[in-house]
Amino acid sequence: xxxxxxxPLVLGxxxxxxxxxxxxxxxxxxxxxxxxxxxxxxxxxxxxxLAPSLWVTLSITLAALGAAxxxxxxxxxxxxxxxxxxxxxxxxxxxxxxxxxxxxAPLIIVWANDVDLSLLICAWLVAFFPILSNTILGLRSVDxxxxxxxxxxxxxxxxxxVYLRLPAALPYFLGxxxxxxxxxxxxxxxxxxxxxxxGNASGLAWRILExxxxxxxxxxxxxxxxxxxxxxxxFLVLTLLSHLLLRRWHESALDGQE
Amino acid sequence: MPATxxxxxxxxxxxxxxxxxxxxxxxxLTVAAGEFVSLLGPSGCGKxxxxxxxxxxxxxxxxxxxxxxxxxxxGFVFQEPTLMPWATALANVELPLKLAGLARxxxxxxxxxxxxxxxxxxxxxxYPRELSGGMKMRVSIARALVTQPRLLLMDEPFAALDExxxxxxxxxxxxxxxxxxxxxxxxxxxxxxxxxxxxRIVIMGTRPxxxxxxxxxxxxxxxxxxxxxxxxxxxxxxxxxxxLGQAMAA
Lengths: 258, 250
Ligand SMILES: Nc1ncnc2c1ncn2[C@@H]1O[C@H](COP(=O)(O)OP(=O)(O)OP(=O)(O)O)[C@@H](O)[C@H]1O
Ligand SMILES: [Mg+2]
What we know:
Chain A: Residues 54-245 form the ABC transmembrane type-1 domain. The complex is a heterodimer. Chain A is an all-alpha fold.
């Protein structure tokens, strides 16, 4: 195992150990701050409640991320093909991006009339912009001379897109995807907080709210730990995906290889 | 089908850019079929602009250009290798054939030949980042040659290379040209390179870019490494330097 893995792992364990020690030494009551061991126990004991919620949050996050990839990617390609489409639509994409999701979530919940759907829409709203803007940037950052080369051989717009612009945009798209993965999770959690209720099934945010009302602080922490773990897992999977796709040719995938 | 050179005729071409800058003023140039001509001039005199106009990648503000009309009659070598980093050397060389709609097996075979022709057999599966600067340049030349163009336009292709690679590639280029007899227009700001490679040197002056003079490379010496130390070479280099100096002073 490399330093890249060991160093943060050791630090993490150290902090957890200190935390446990401090909670015990100072006799902090669990309803103020539970120690990591109690949180882990709660996680196991409440697994039957938490696991379905984890699944709900995860599926909303992934669905939102999928929708963000499709909509962000397709819009970016449309924008790159038509200056008019871009000029007329891009400002609205920015408006959507800068409006805090907490502020529009109540509206969306009213309109969508279905909790799961509204959570999905909120998470999607937060997630799609980085993919859109990064992919646009990528589609534009094509080597001018390569564009000339395609022109010289009469490639036309479509084949230039497929053989040149899309591959050139891939690293940018993947960069956007990594940001969006985290944002989709944040969007899903925040929206559920705003909704204040689970739909037919409740996600992790609702479990935190519920445990808070009942002063079950260890369970709040257990749910929180699951959200963090989900975020980390999404990040790692997307990083791996990006590495696999780019490792043969892109500079970003070269570290530690030389 | 052996490629035969195509003539090029540039008549009274001027180019003004949108920002008001005049890059070329009344440039006329005729290149015979199969001729090897160098465009020699200081930085900023419009060499790239002229080459792009000849290739049809830029339009002249006035004047006209006569060149071979088929899409695959022309090869262009840029100043940088300009390879697609996500594609292997072979796939990069295949690109012009792919865009021409050739069948996979045929374009593969021809691209392999072209790579072998520039001394890169065995590197088909390498990605650009796994190749040295000189090797990348060779891939770029292979790509330009794979369509068997009748006209090869090169924009300071060896400017970024060390002298050893440069001399090596100069010889390789000459060998290819002697074998295929395409028309070659070679942009450079090196007097020595222009003398070594070409049959005729077109010297350009600046502000605005224009043709200052022409100098035939009149020698009976064979174009090999020994040519570089011959009396002819030295004399012609001296002439070319003097004319270049005049062009820059005027
Ligand atoms: N797209 C453009 N818009 C405006 N001016 C340009 C453009 N391209 C080139 N120029 C100008 O035209 C002049 C000639 O440029 P060009 O690139 O043809 O020079 P060059 O002879 O190839 O120089 P070098 O040897 O440095 O490559 C320069 O002054 C440059 O600033
Ligand atoms: Mg130039």
